[in-house]
Every structure is written in structure tokens, then in C-alpha cells.
TrEMBL record:
Keyword RNA-binding on entry: no
Gene expressing this chain: argC
Entry protein name: N-acetyl-gamma-glutamyl-phosphate reductase
GO molecular function terms attached to this record: N-acetyl-gamma-glutamyl-phosphate reductase activity; NAD binding
Active site: 116
Catalytic activity: N-acetyl-L-glutamate 5-semialdehyde + phosphate + NADP(+) = N-acetyl-L-glutamyl 5-phosphate + NADPH + H(+)
Span of domain Semialdehyde dehydrogenase NAD-binding: 4-105
Keywords: Amino-acid biosynthesis, Arginine biosynthesis, Cytoplasm, NADP, Oxidoreductase
Pathway it works in: Amino-acid biosynthesis; L-arginine biosynthesis; N(2)-acetyl-L-ornithine from L-glutamate: step 3/4
Family per record: Belongs to the NAGSA dehydrogenase family. Type 2 subfamily.
Top EC class of this enzyme: oxidoreductase
GO biological process: L-arginine biosynthetic process
Length: 316
């Protein structure tokens, strides 16, 4: 069967990348909107209702509008915005998050694609909190750097107009109220929001999240080997998953800790570093903010929903 897919927001950064990934697929018919009617409610409503799956690559408010325009019971939705990440009735589209999440996504009518930042943080912390190595009320700080494409067309234009003169490393969200905090908190299993201090680098795409841990606060201090084993075990059972765990403390190539190392792929790689004598550890995740952080994850979720037994190449 050929599935009809409409990408609402197909001219944006995420939408274009999804289009590129689906263009050569013979099992998918892409429904496209005329350039001059991209924001026309009637034209969007017609295509949203004609689609088997609608992928929303829009600002939050426009994504909510698209959902409200769907009048039939058959159109399934993948929303790339942050409108529905912790909403009732929506499956969170991080397939490797738990053993059962891929099946939940496969059955869902409404899937919310994760934000780019939370996936790395959830991948690092969820196994440790659910495995009892860290308590839910552990005081967590998250740092990270993203390429400027994370800010969409507006930020891309801004950085590209400045070129090398643009800020190399610009911390932001300094009111500590970033829009990803609710999903980061909910799916890590933390009792309260972490202190999240992200930054944008002067490069196009690629992301690194870092969670430093002061373990000396705990009565039972896990070793680096125990932290690493809990994370590695958590992801060991993935079927066709894209999360990989580097050996404990391993930096095998100089490029391993480069935020751009997995650009152009749907992979997400985790690293654990530790000093047991000091009871300190650092958890790092590396991935492409436009790959596993957005378009790659959306295509992975689409494949699950369509029952495509995906190979690495289908999402990457
Ligand atoms: N970039 C990233 O790394 C990630 C982005 N996301 C999320 O995905 C969504 C899309 O982001 P991104 O692609 O970066 O954003 P862009 O700004 O690059 O693209 C958004 C697109 O939506 C279009 N649009 C805006 N309002 C409407 C409307 N009312 N009707 C129809 N089209 C509309 C815009 O039109 P126009 O071209 O005229 O501006 C634009 O083409 C956002 O919610 C974003 O937060 C999620 C994960 C990562
Ligand atoms: C560098 C940069 O600005 N990144 C964006 C996140 C991109 C993303 O994941 O967006 P959604 O949650 O809307 O899907 C930000 O921090 O707001």
C-alpha cells in the first residue's frame, strides 16, 4: 500500500529535510501544497484530511491549528513542534526511550516528535533514575551546544548574514525557563526541572548535551562502571534502534566528542566518563539536531506507524 503523507510546513528547515528523506520512497506519495497557498487554511485542511499521515513542521500555534483542521478519524499525525510533547492522548516519539515505546508509536494516531535537546538528556538520565542509581530528586544541571539550524529559518538567516563574525558560543535561555523543560522532566523521571543552560555555536548543525554529576551527595555512590552498565543495558534490547553507547571513558578518535560527529545520520551516541575516587561523572550525548533531533526521528516514527521494518538507511 502507498501511504499519502502531507508535510505541513514543507518549506521550513525540518519540513525540507523530511521531504528529502522521503522523496525517493516508492511506498510514500507526498501530497504537496502550492507555494502561494502554504498558509491558506482551506488548502491545508484539504490536504490534512486527504493524508494518511500528516507531519507538522510548524510553529506551535500553527501546529495546533492544523490538528484542529483534521475532521476525519483516519489522518494520523506526527507533530514536530513543542505543542503536544506532554499532552494526554499523544505518544512521545522517542522510540528507544523504553522497550515498549516503539510499539506505542506504531499504534498511535497522534505522535509528538521530541524536542532536539531533550532526547540526549532523556537517554542519559532515564536509565539511571528508573534503575535506582540516581534518585528522582537528584539536583541535575544540563549544558549543551547546538548548531544554529536548531533555531529554524530565522536563526539560520541571522547567523549566515554574520558569517565568521557571529558569536562562536552563545549561551541562551538564561531565564532558566526553556520550553523543553516539561518534556525533559517528564521523560527523564526527574521530580523537578533540571537547570538547563544551552548554547548555540557558529556552525550549521550538530548537538552535544552534557550532564555533570556530583555523586558525593548520595548515600550509595554508584561507580562509573555501574552508571555505564545501567545505560548500556537499557539500550541493549533496541530493535532497529539508533542509540549507541560508547565504552566507558572511551574517546577512540579525536572526533568522538565533536557535536558535528553524527551529522547526516539518525544516530545518537552516549558517553560516560567518571572518576570514582572523586565521585564525579559526566554523561554526554551527541547527535544531529536536524537528524535524530528532528527530521530523522520524524521519519523513524513514520516508519514505525506505517509498519515499515526499517533499516538504518531508511531514517538516516
Ligand atoms: N530546527 C530544529 O532543529 C528543530 C525544529 N523543531 C520544531 O519543528 C517545527 C519547525 O521548525 P523549523 O523547521 O526549524 O522552523 P522553520 O522556521 O525553518 O520553518 C517553519 C515553516 O512553517 C511555516 N509556517 C509558519 N506559520 C505557518 C502557517 N500558519 N501555516 C503554514 N505554514 C506556516 C513557515 O513559513 P515561512 O517559510 O513563510 O516562514 C516555515 O516554512 C518548530 O515547531 C520547531 O520548533 C523540532 C526539533 C528540532
Ligand atoms: C538552537 C535553538 O534555538 N534551538 C531551539 C530548539 C529547537 C527544537 O527542538 O525545537 P522545538 O522544541 O520547537 O521542536 C530552542 O532552543 O528553542
Amino acid at each position: 500500500m502507498v501511504a499519502r503523507v502531507f508535510i505541513d510546513g514543507e518549506a521550513g528547515t525540518t519540513g525540507l529535510q523530511i521531504r528529502d528523506r522521503l522523496a525517493s520512497r516508492s511506498d510514500i506519495e507526498l501530497l504537496s501544497i502550492a507555494e502561494d497557498r502554504r498558509k491558506d487554511l482551506k488548502a491545508r485542511a484539504d490536504l490534512l484530511n486527504a493524508a494518511d499521515v500528516a507531519i507538522l513542521c510548524l510553529p506551535d500555534e500553527a501546529a495546533r491549528e492544523s490538528v484542529s483542521l483534521i475532521e476525519n478519524a483516519t489522518t494520523r499525525v506526527i507533530d514536530a513542534s513543542s505543542a503536544y510533547r506532554v499532552a494526554e492522548g499523544w505518544a512521545y516519539g522517542f522510540a528507544e526511550m523504553d522497550g515498549s515505546q516503539a510499539a506505542t508509536i506504531a499504534e498511535a494516531k497522534r505522535v509528538s516528535n521530541p524536542g532536539c535537546w531533550p532526547q540526549g538528556v532523556i537517554a542519559c538520565l532515564r536509565p539511571l533514575i528508573s534503575g535506582g542509581l540516581l534518585p528522582a530528586d537528584f539536583p541535575v544541571t544540563v549544558n549543551g551546544v547546538s548548531g544554529y539550524s536548531g533555531g529554524g529559518k530565522g536563526m539560520i538567516a541571522d547567523y549566515e548574514s554574520q558569517g565568521p563574525a557571529a558569536n562562536m558560543f552563545a549561551p541562551y535561555a538564561l531565564g532558566f525557563n526553556h520550553k523543553h523543560l516539561p518534556e525533559m522532566t517528564a521523560y527523564t523521571g526527574l521530580a523537578a526541572a533540571p537547570l538547563f543552560a544551552p548554547a548555540v555555536g557558529n556552525y550549521y548543525k550538530g548537538m552535544l548535551t552534557a550532564v555533570p554529576l556530583r555523586l558525593d551527595r548520595l548515600t550509595e555512590v554508584p561507580t562509573g562502571a555501574q552508571l555505564h552498565a545501567a545505560i548500556a543495558d537499557h539500550f541493549a534490547g533496541q530493535r532497529n534502534g539508533f542509540v549507541e553507547v560508547a565504552p566507558l571513558g572511551a574517546i577512540e578518535r579525536s572526533d568522538d566528542l565533536n557535536p558535528q560527529a553524527l551529522n547526516g545520520t539518525n544516530r545518537l551516541r552516549l558517553h560516560v566518563f567518571a572518576n570514582d575516587a572523586r565521585a564525579q561523572a559526566l554523561l554526554i550525548a551527541i547527535y544531529d539536531n536536524l537528524g535524530k533531533g528532528a527530521s530523522g526521528a520524524a521519519v523513524q516514527n513514520l516508519n514505525l506507524m506505517l509498519g515499515v521494518d526499517q533499516t538504518k538507511s531508511l531514517a538516516a
